[in-house]
Description:
Largest sheet: 2 strands, antiparallel
Oligomer: single chain
Shape: elongated
Amino acid sequence: xxxxALTSGKKIAVTLFLMTAIVSNAQIPxxxxxxxxxxxxxxxxxxxEITTVKGTVSKMAVNDDFIYDGFYLTGN
Length: 76
């Protein structure tokens, strides 16, 4: 009798643990937020002409974190 009660107690404990784990890991679906005033996407602008520059890269520019973020051109 003692062994049977211990086994059923373990089964109850395991069942409660699994139920708690399932409930705590369940995720509530997140619905996309409605855009608030001022959060609209900007309207696409017409294509703009850009300037073309020709030359030879003479030096690379780095920032304080040593990440390349520009370069110097030598041209005629």
